[in-house]
Write a structure and sequence with these properties.
The structure is a single chain. The chain has about 190 residues and is mainly α. Among the domains are: about 55 residues; about 60 residues. It is built from three helices and no strands. Helix 1 packs antiparallel against helix 2. It is rod-shaped and about 200 Å long.
Length: about 190
């Protein structure tokens, strides 16, 4: 916009100068007529206005460029922060995945340990029950053996008593008693 005003002023001054020169050629007046001074004043006015306008415009452009530069720097900083945050989040995610894997592995180990303990306890319980069954069988066998032995002893005593009662009635019984009494000292020592 400022450039358009400057260009228009320069064109007006340039258009006025040939008119002044043409006038001099036709009239014998001096070169410095009123048109020259109007053109000169217009040129001075344009230069005088253009310098502060240029400063204001360049200052505005510089401040706008600085604002854009600051925004770009801020965007770069935010991008770096976002990348750092992304890297941190990815690192935490990897750590969480490792921790989760460690927890799962620990749970698997614990399950294997519990399974092993359960198998050992089951084997121990089975061994105890087997031993209890064997002990019960041994006690039953011992009880049966004792019962059979007691019955056999009772039967043998009864048979012996019957035989002795039948045999001891005569002379043969007296000889057997004498023989048993004679063997007693030898058998007792």
């Amino acid at each position: 916009m400022i450039w358009n005003a400057l260009a228009a002023a320069a064109l007006m001054a340039a258009a006025a100068l040939p008119a002044v020169a043409a006038r001099e050629a036709t009239h014998d007046e001096t070169f410095f007529g009123p048109e020259f001074f109007v053109a000169l004043a217009l040129l001075v006015l344009v230069v005088a206005i253009a310098k502060p306008v240029w400063r204001a415009l360049s200052g505005t452009l510089d401040s706008h460029a600085n604002a854009i530069r600051n925004e770009l720097n801020e965007a770069q900083r935010l991008r770096e922060d976002a990348l750092a945050l992304l890297a941190d989040t990815q690192r935490r995610q990897r750590e969480a995945a490792r921790e989760a894997e460690a927890i799962v592995e620990a749970a698997r180990e614990e399950a294997r340990r519990i399974e092993t303990q359960a198998a050992e306890r089951t084997a121990q319980a089975m061994a105890r029950r087997e031993q209890q069954a064997l002990d019960t069988i041994a006690r039953a066998e011992a009880e049966a053996t004792r019962t059979v032995r007691d019955a056999a002893v009772d039967l043998a005593i009864a048979a012996t008593a019957k035989l002795l009662a039948e045999d001891s009635a005569g002379a043969k019984g007296t000889a057997l008693i004498d023989k048993a009494i004679g063997e007693l000292p030898r058998r007792l020592n």
